[in-house]
Amino acid sequence: MNPGIDVVGVYVRDQDEALAFYVEKLGFRVQADVGNGDYRWLTVQHPEQPGFQLGLFKPGPPVHDAATAQTLNAMVAKGAMPPLVLRVDNCRAAYDRLLGLGVEFTQEPTDRYGTVDAGFRDPSGNGWKMIQMRG
Question: Rounded to 5 degrees, what are φ and ψ at 54?
Fold first, then answer.
């Protein structure tokens, strides 16, 4: 048994919209896309991290009641969930490419702490920090 974290999830308002964003814009690959009634288990992977999955989960039954799902959707839309971090080789080049694809940025590339970082949001409102790897 290999211990470790396999899947980390984010809440999304629409799984098809999230799937298109993460695959077509960020370059992730579909790992799992299976349904069980109204529930859909949808995960993607970064091509350079095949052992780690990002779950794109829609709040609602059977995990949440309607009121909880509504609260979670509202919190995500406001950007209130903890940010995720995406490492890139060149933050400014990645920013230009993603901006050209229509990604909503909350912060342009900024030199800070000996590297460069930028901020963006997915279509549901989840915040991302894109950080250039130190060379």
Answer: -105, 115
